[in-house]
Amino acid sequence: MRNKKGLTLVEVVVAMGLFGIIMVTLFPAFLITNLMNITSREFTDANFEAQSELEEIYNWSKVAGATPTSVLTKAEMGPYTCVGSTCSKDEGDYHFVVTYGPNAEVATMVNLVITVSKPSANPDYGKNRAQLEIILRFGG
């Protein structure tokens, strides 16, 4: 008998077949995980942008005599273009929409909602990436 030190052609073909079957079943999971990571990053970035914008609005709301419209139309804020109680602006890849109105429970407070959207190449995903709401007192 000879000393066999290696794999036969049949063993190599079987091993490659098993590897192929395993990869065909696992590869879609890698693609889905990658898509979920990209989508999650988009939502996280939009939430960060919305939070940053709300913090800036909050800081400007403390100035004496400030109103939602006067704060949002400041040059330092972008500025927003306002029509009634809805203001919007485009900054970078994002579109910001701020709507405000009186608070139903406390007359001196203002409900403020900011929505951040980003154009998407995939129509299956909505444009809106983040929406935050805050109740503020303007003018001190």
List key phrases describing it.
2 helices; rod-shaped; alpha+beta; 140 residues; 5 strands; 41% helix; 5-stranded antiparallel beta sheet
How do the helices and strands line up, and which of them pair or pack?
Elements: H1 9-61, H2 68-72, E1 81-83, E2 86-91, E3 94-102, E4 110-117, E5 128-136
Antiparallel strand pairs: 1-2, 2-3, 3-4, 4-5
Structural class: alpha+beta
Give the helix tally. 2
Provide the β-strand percentage band.
Answer: 25-35%
Let me know the largest β-sheet.
Answer: 5 strands, antiparallel
How much helical structure, as a percent, in the residues? 40-55%
C-alpha geometry: rod-shaped
> What value does the Rg take, in angstroms?
27 Å
User: Got a strand count?
Assistant: 5
Strand order across the largest sheet: 1-2-3-4-5
Question: Uncertain runs with pLDDT below 50, 5 residues or more?
Answer: none
Order of helices and strands: HHEEEEE
Number of domains: 1
How widely separated are the two ends? 97 Å
Rounded mean pLDDT is: 88
